[in-house]
Amino acid sequence: MTAVPAPLDTALMLAAHGVPPLPLRAGKAPFGNCAACAKNVCGGRPNMKAAGPCSCPYPCHGWAAATTDPTVLTCPAWATAWRRAAAVAYHPGGAGVTVVDLDDAAAVDWARATLPATRTVTTTRGEHWIYRGTMPSSNAVRPGVDIKSLMQYARWLGNGVGVMAPLPDAVRALAVKEPPATRRAAQRLSVPLRGHGGECPHRTPTYLDRGISMAVQRIGEARSAVHATVYRTFLAVLSTHGRCGCLTDTHVNRLFTAAQAKGETPRHCTDAWANALTTLGL
Question: From 72's CA, which of 39, 64, 104, 140 has a CA 20 to 30 Å away?
Answer without folding.
Answer: 39
